[in-house]
Specification:
Strand content of chain A: 25-35%
Shape of chain B: globular
Structural class of chain B: mainly alpha
Oligomer: heterodimer
CATH superfamily of the largest domain in chain A: P-loop containing nucleotide triphosphate hydrolases
Shape of chain A: globular
Number of helices of chain A: 10
Structural class of chain A: alpha+beta
Strand order of the largest sheet of chain A: 6-7-8-3-9-10
Radius of gyration of chain B: 24 Å
Number of strands of chain A: 18
Chain lengths: 323, 537
């Protein structure tokens, strides 16, 4: 019960969208494909679904090459960024679609539809028109529709990107719970690392068509494989080992996130505030330290102003060791 | 979708499967269009040759008049169609639904009826009524094609221009007009094509004095039996038609690339816009004048108003002009048009599906098929009709005298229309919707049935309705192919008009009125369906 991708290449003419990708997803595991837009992660997902023909390499399930299996016989569910619900069917009709294709009888179908609507928190929505639903509700229906026929593998293509932030965070938690509860094996494409870390057991970071790093979320977060990955994962500054030794006391190449430097009256590092931006739960600063600019954070209460001299302390949760 | 088919079963690549599906429309076009047309051209070339005909000065006079009247009618249709397009696309004014239906009526009227309607107003015929009648016929094409795009052009660009200080007129010429250009180009090429090959109208109004290439082909074939001359002219027409179609195709492609646009809700007109609305109403009133004139003429006799013409439809005309009664002819019309619509739906829908499928795989083949499907619109119906007579002998069964000949010829004329109505709707279906269905276990055929069909259902019904009405009024090919004992209503009308007798002409006008009523009802029913197609007619 596992997916295996070996040496997969997908080309559009002379453009290599995906090149030499190896990846496995074990039974019940959730893997996130994380990368900037245009890195080929969606193309990889579509190739797994059978929607893009690979130029080279194989996609196999339980050791059986899927090259000869068309999309509709793979038994993989797919959720698009914007739902893609069937506009001419109501909510129940959408959720029941995959069951009808599998010739599940009417009674069993109705039962499963009700069960799934409960699961995604849309109890009683069966007769609603899908065009009347909000974006978040549509995505829940899309999820219920994909899960209804019990897919061997669930493919999610930026499932939450079209939603606004508060809803996205809520739905990410719901989705994580749902995937665990149903024991669904899933491959999720996202460009948002919070989302990837919320949902996934393992993360595969992609760049320019290649998978550059695979690992558990915390490992990837703390030890990005290279500078580009570190920058993609939010490290605004990268320090060489000597500079890192001086500032944070680690003699290795490190990436600093904004949270690596925190305003602390008793901190050992002296710096001058250049600019200040208010965020939801903290204040983001740009500080000058020995003639170089660094990001830092301060508490929301009584934050320093530009021109102020402050002292900083190092928070090692914000420091990523590269390599 | 590298491989369609399950497990070990070796199956076709999708591109090959689509190409095989394309065989149906291609075979239909090949047997019932290309073969007869090529046969007749070949026959003509075998006898004489093109060069002598092309070298004659009067050939070029003919070409000059054909292009001249078509150009004039196209310009007139564009100028009068634009205000109507504006009204339909942008204005929330009471009665716009009626305007939408009224403007379609002329387009689906039988050409003979249009010719007669104008002869009722200009008894002597001439150049002016020919140009007017051709434009009259095509205002709908401009209004619908341009209006369809206009309703979806983002109004904010115009608002931005106005905010930057452009006058209403300046905003129109510098912002709106360029974005409408593809639709205008597309409409102009189609209208020009219709006008250049218009047959019934020119025959009725031009007589022997004003002839176009199309009517000349008819005269040479039927009256002078000058096959080589007719073939040379057919060839000339064919080349010109392909040129226009290719240009139109380019404009269309630009338009489809620029989609999707916004759906702009109509607003209540303000200030100077009322002037345009009034102009549109005047155009519609002008469009209805010949229609009303024709109805009046069907009721007016020397002894005052009377239904004599309508009553006479039950008989065979004065001194037995007709082989069958008007009623029988009407039944023949309905029967032939029904068969034609069914054939055209089968071929047209298959073509549209194939074009959508192939476009996904992006081939030149799709482009070629797209253009080839439009060709029958531009080829002389007479050439086609005569081609049938010389080729259909070779088919199994007694095809030349088969009652299927008329519906097949009509289906050729109707198919492009159906393709142009259904295709934009199918193209507008998000490909990912089909992919979602496929990942849920729907086979390609099932995807079509579960996604494409329900979403295109309304446009299919509308296409069938338009197809039926156009087939009902088809005159050119039908006049040539209808067996004497089974004429259609337009054929009967032409016959009645060519014979003396007060009752005969009364009866002809009454038959026209009947056709118009059927057409209008059909159009109103179709409008009820309110197809948001952006289709081109």
């Amino acid at each position: 019960m596992s997916l295996r991708v070996d040496g997969l290449d997908v080309r559009y003419g002379s453009v290599a969208a995906v090149s030499g990708v190896d990846l496995t997803v074990a039974d019940g595991e959730v893997v996130a494909l994380l990368g900037p837009s245009g890195c080929g992660k969606s193309t990889l997902l579509r190739a797994v679904a059978g929607l893009e023909p690979p130029t080279a390499g194989t996609v196999s399930w339980d050791g059986v090459d899927l090259a000869g299996t068309p999309v509709h016989r793979r038994g993989f569910g797919l959720v698009f960024q914007d739902g893609q619900l069937f506009p001419h069917r109501d909510v129940a009709g959408n959720v029941a679609f995959g069951l009808r294709m599998r010739r599940v009888d009417r009674a069993a179908r109705a039962e499963r539809v009700a069960e799934l609507l409960d699961l995604v928190g849309l109890t009683g929505y069966a007769d609603r028109r899908v065009t009347e639903l909000s974006g978040g509700e549509q995505q829940r229906v899309a999820l219920a529709r994909a899960l209804a026929p019990r897919p061997k593998l669930l493919l999610l293509d930026e499932p939450l990107s079209a939603l606004d932030r508060a809803l996205r965070e809520q739905l990410a938690l719901d989705l994580a719970r749902l995937l665990r509860e149903t024991g669904t094996t899933a491959l999720v494409v996202t460009h948002d690392h919070d989302e990837a870390f919320t949902l996934a057991d393992r993360v595969a970071v992609m760049r320019a068509g290649r998978v550059v790093q695979v690992g558990e979320p915390s490992a990837v977060w703390q030890h990005p494989v290279d500078v580009d990955t570190a920058r993609f994962l939010g490290c605004g500054r990268v320090l060489a080992p000597e500079a890192a030794q001086r500032l944070v006391g680690v003699r290795e190449r490190v990436g600093l996130r904004a949270t690596a430097l925190r305003v602390d009256p008793s901190g050992p590092i002296r710096a001058e505030v250049v600019t200040r931006v208010h965020r939801r739960d903290h204040v983001r600063l740009l500080v000058r330290l020995d003639g170089e600019d660094f990001e830092a954070v301060a508490g929301v209460a009584d934050p320093p102003s530009p021109g102020d001299h402050v002292t900083l302390t190092v928070d090692h949760d914000g420091v990523a060791v590269i390599g | 979708m590298a491989h369609v088919g399950a497990g070990l079963k070796p199956t076709l690549s999708p591109r090959l499967a689509w190409s095989l599906a394309a065989l149906l429309p291609l075979a239909f076009l090949g047997v019932f269009f290309a073969w007869p047309v090529l046969a007749i051209v070949g026959l003509g070339l075998g006898e004489g040759g093109v060069l002598p005909v092309l070298a004659r000065a009067d050939t070029w006079d003919l070409v000059g008049f054909t292009l001249g009247q078509a150009a004039a009618a196209t310009v007139l249709a564009l100028v009068t169609g634009m205000p109507v397009a504006f009204l339909l696309a942008r204005c929330r004014v009471r009665g716009t639904g009626l305007v939408r239906a009224a403007v379609m009526v002329p387009f689906v009227l039988p050409t003979v009826v249009v010719g007669l309607a104008f002869r009722a107003l200009w008894p002597d015929g001439g150049v002016l009524p020919i140009v007017l009648a051709n434009a009259f016929f095509n205002v709908a094409v401009v209004a619908r094609t341009v209006g369809g795009l206009w309703a979806r052009v983002d109004r904010r660009a115009e608002d931005a221009a106005r905010a930057l200080g452009a006058s209403r007129v300046r905003a129109f010429t510098s912002v709106v007009l360029p974005s409408l250009a593809p639709a205008i180009g597309s409409a102009a090429s189609v209208v020009f094509l219709f006008c250049a090959t218009s047959f019934g109208v020119v025959l009725v109004l031009g007589g022997a004095r004003h002839r176009t290439v199309e009517t000349e082909i008819y005269l040479r074939t039927v009256q002078l039996f000058d096959l080589s001359g007719a073939a040379a002219l057919s060839l000339l027409q064919f080349v010109a038609v392909i040129a226009v179609l290719v240009l139109g195709g380019l404009a269309r492609r630009r338009r489809e690339r620029s989609l999707p646009l916004r759906v702009e809700p109509p607003r209540r007109p303000a200030g100077g816009e009322w002037g345009v609305v009034v102009a549109a109403w005047l155009v519609v009133a002008a469009l209805l004048t010949p229609v009303v004139g024709l109805v009046a003429r069907s009721l007016a006799t020397d002894d005052g108003w009377s239904f004599a013409g309508y009553a006479a439809l039950a008989g065979t005309g004065e001194r037995g002009t007709l082989a069958v009664s008007g009623l029988d002819a009407a039944l023949n019309s309905v029967r032939a048009a029904t068969d034609a619509t069914l054939v055209a739906l089968l071929v047209g829908v298959t073509s549209a599906v194939v074009l959508v499928g192939l476009r996904r795989h992006g081939t030149w083949f799709a482009e070629t098929l797209d253009t080839a499907l439009m060709l029958p619109l531009g080829v002389s119906a007479v050439t086609l009709g005569f081609g049938y007579l010389v080729t259909m002998d070779a088919l199994p069964g007694d095809f030349r005298t088969s009652p299927l000949l008329v519906p097949l010829a009509q289906a050729l004329v109707v198919t492009p229309l159906i393709v142009r109505i259904v295709l934009p709707v199918l193209r507008a279906v998000d490909e990912r919707l089909r992919q979602a269905a496929a990942t849920l276990g729907a086979s390609p055929w099932r995807v079509w049935r579960e996604v494409d069909l329900p979403l295109a259902a309304r446009s299919l019904v509308a296409a069938a309705g338009f197809g039926f009405v156009v087939a009902l009024g088809e005159f050119g090919a039908t006049s040539f192919l209808a067996r004497p004992e089974a004429p259609t209503l337009p054929v009967v009308i032409a016959r009645l008009m060519s014979r003396p007798g007060e009752l005969n002409s009364q009866m002809a006008y009454a038959a026209c009125a009947v056709l118009m009523v059927v057409t209008t009802v059909a159009v109103l029913v179709i409008e009820r369906l309110r197809v948001p197609s952006g289709g081109e007619f």
